[in-house]
Amino acid sequence: MIDLDFLKKVELFKYLNDGQLATVQGCCQEETFQQGDKLFAEGDKADHLWMVLEGQIDIRFDLPRQPTSEANNISSVTDTMAFGWSGLVPPNKYTLSAYCVSRTAKVVKMTRECLLKLFEDDTAMGYRVMTNVNAVVSRRFQQLQGTASDSPPRR
């Protein structure tokens, strides 16, 4: 079972009380990936929200009919960071691909159905988590804009 102390460190669950975190715990499943493993691909049905327990996952924009490349890395996620929020946002399709880049990575998968049921039962928790999701998405978008503006113009 995923430790409550871990969930307390995950930004998406900030401000949840121990009782709410205990219900979230029931939606969690741990998985281990090896370097080079693809967790999901752009366009896949987004049934899960993910968090990193250990290791590093790169979120990439893969070009059609070409092998994945570190050059197409959009974001790297590490300990306690969440990714794959498309699982909570319609149309529930992943917009990027995720790869394990560390020797191994332990991640927590949470099914969309389980989380949405929790949010239906405890709307205050659902509101708090979705507010946190919006904050994470906004911050990562700003980071991406900063990276793009630092890049030399393409010719």
Write the topology of this structure:
Blueprint: H1 4-9, H2 18-25, E1 28-34, E2 38-40, E3 48-54, E4 57-60, E5 73-77, E6 82-83, E7 97-100, E8 104-111, H3 112-121, H4 123-150
Antiparallel strand pairs: 1-8, 2-7, 3-6, 3-8, 4-5, 4-7
Helix pairs in contact: 3-4
Structure write-up:
The structure is a single chain. The protein is α+β, with helices and mostly antiparallel strands and 155 residues long. The protein is 34% helix and 26% strand. The protein has one domain (4-146): Jelly Rolls (Sandwich), CATH 2.60.120.10. It has a four-stranded antiparallel β-sheet. The protein has a four-stranded antiparallel β-sheet with strand order 2-7-4-5, with no helix packed on it. Helix 3 (112-121) packs across helix 4. The radius of gyration is 16 Å and the shape is globular. The protein starts with a helix and ends in a 5-residue tail after the last helix.
Radius of gyration based on Cα positions: 16 Å
The total of helices stands at 4
Tell how many strands the DSSP assignment holds.
8
Mean pLDDT: 92
Q: What structural category characterises the helix and strand content?
A: alpha+beta
Major sheet attributes: 4 strands, antiparallel
Number of domains: 1
CATH class: Mainly Beta
Which strands sit side by side, in order, in the main sheet? 1-8-3-6
Span of the ends, CA to CA? 52 Å
Which word captures the global form? globular
